[in-house]
């Protein structure tokens, strides 16, 4: 293959992290992400096959991509997930492999996923209250998710991270309880600011819970936080939890909490991410208005060097930032679950 990597854009950023959306399908219907009736799902023919995912992944690895996160939709809905992980783990050089999941069917699969080569997992969990969970996700599946988190920890998937989106009208008051619960279990909780990527287009800046507000809430609940390390190209700002309620229960566990403030404290200037959708479209930003079709050339017999050229060209044109604050900001046509969050 012609060497066209590393994947540098015109602002000097180098893309090394690829998020692969294995499927647009999902087992939940989180209100901040999807409508109750679901979306217009891709057809089987539109979705990439496992061979196609792995072939593209190998081209990305040849271009300097060193980490891959499998997401969706819900990646655990993908029937051959362990096999895909094993094939990605066999690439050379081997990329770091992680998964973002709603955890609903994780309990029965965590061991197998770890054995296939998965190293880390992020589980999304916005509430510990069963009724609230059912209202927020439109499915009564909290017990399964909690069992999934336990199973992932038992399978040695470490660090185990919990992603929580706070909404003013449902779980905002639960931020301290989510933190207490996570600290006691040695889990890394990260709060994510809601982004204008919901399929229902209900996002509004006024309703969004900001990073400042989350820090204020945690501090009012008695948590003392100190910035930890440099954010760099990591989306989460990390904080060490120096003190707080129930401290004796998490002593000696490297207590930390993160905030992913994509809206109010964007990390675009250091962004090293690319996204491949389940139908083989390359997106250089969550908020991009354009995509580069890799599926058609792949299916029309393009060689690795040709695919690499297309990818390099797309990365070169990556936009400076998400532009949410611009007056002419337009939400992308695809929503979060269809892009691969
Ligand atoms: N289904 C899996 C899950 O929920 O973890 C993976 C895909 S989901 C799109 C990935 C992450 O995006 C989840 O943590 C979810 O909470 C978050 N998310 C979904 N819609 C969002 C939005 N509009 N703004 C911010 N985060 C969002
Ligand atoms: Fe599904 Fe994840 Fe979106 Fe919830 S956030 S509807 S689990 S894709």
Write a brief structural summary.
With 341 residues, this protein is of the alpha/beta class.
Summarize the structure in words.
The structure is a single chain. The protein is an alpha/beta fold and 341 residues long. The chain has helices spanning 50-62, 81-89, 110-116, 130-137, 142-154, 175-184, 211-220, 295-299, 304-316, 336-339, and strands at 7-8, 14-15, 17-23, 67-72, 96-101, 120-124, 160-165, 188-192, 224-227, 236-243, 256-260, 273-276, 281-283, 292-293. The protein has 10 helices and 14 strands. It is globular, with a radius of gyration of 19 Å. Helix 6 links the parallel strand 7 and strand 8. The longest helix has 13 residues, at 50-62. A 12-stranded mixed β-sheet has the order 9-10-11-8-7-6-5-4-3-12-13-14. A two-stranded antiparallel ribbon has the order 1-2. The chain starts with 6 loop residues before the first strand and ends with a helix. The mean pLDDT is 94. The protein has a single domain (7-339), classed as Aldolase class I (TIM Barrel). S-adenosylmethionine binds next to strand 4, strand 5, strand 7 and helix 10.
Spans of 5+ residues with little confidence (pLDDT < 50)? none
Mean pLDDT: 94
Ligands, deduplicated: S-adenosylmethionine, iron/sulfur cluster
Rg (C-alpha, Å): 19 Å
* CATH fold-level topology: TIM Barrel
| Structural class assignment | alpha/beta
Order of strands across the main sheet: 9-10-11-8-7-6-5-4-3-12-13-14
* Name of the CATH superfamily: Aldolase class I
């Amino acid at each position: 293959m012609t060497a066209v990597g590393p994947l540098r854009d015109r602002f000097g950023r180098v893309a090394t992290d690829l998020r692969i959306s294995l499927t647009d399908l999902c087992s939940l219907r989180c209100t901040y992400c999807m409508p109750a009736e679901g979306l217009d799902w891709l057809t089987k023919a539109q979705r990439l096959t496992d061979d196609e995912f792995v072939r593209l992944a190998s081209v990305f690895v040849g271009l300097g991509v060193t980490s891959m996160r499998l997401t969706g939709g819900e990646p655990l809905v993908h029937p051959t997930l362990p096999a895909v992980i094993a094939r990605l783990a066999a690439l050379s050089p081997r990329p770091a492999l992680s998964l973002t999941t709603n955890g609903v069917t994780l309990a029965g699969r965590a061991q197998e996923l770890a054995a296939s080569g998965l190293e880390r997992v992020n589980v999304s969990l916005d509430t510990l209250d069963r009724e609230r969970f059912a209202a927020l996700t439109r499915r009564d599946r909290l017990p399964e998710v909690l069992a999934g988190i336990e199973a992932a920890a038992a399978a040695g998937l470490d660090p185990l991270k919990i992603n929580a989106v706070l909404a003013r009208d449902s779980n905002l008051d639960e931020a301290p309880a989510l933190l207490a619960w996570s600290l006691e279990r040695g889990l890394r909780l990260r709060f994510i600011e809601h982004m204008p990527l919901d399929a229902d287009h209900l996002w509004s800046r006024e309703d969004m819970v900001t990073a400042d507000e989350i820090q204020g809430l945690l501090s009012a609940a008695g948590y003392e936080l100190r910035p930890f390390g440099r954010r760099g190209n990591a989306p989460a700002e990390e904080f060490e939890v120096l003190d707080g309620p129930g401290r004796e229960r998490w002593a000696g566990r490297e207590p930390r909490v993160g905030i992913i403030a994509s809206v109010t404290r964007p990390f675009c200037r250091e962004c090293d991410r690319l996204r491949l959708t389940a139908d083989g479209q390359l997106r250089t930003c969550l908020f991009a208005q354009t995509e580069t079709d890799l599926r058609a050339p792949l299916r029309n017999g393009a060689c690795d060097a040709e695919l690499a050229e297309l990818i390099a060209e797309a990365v070169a044109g990556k936009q400076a930032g998400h532009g949410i604050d611009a007056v002419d900001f337009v939400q992308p046509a695809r929503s979060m679950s269809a892009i691969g969050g």
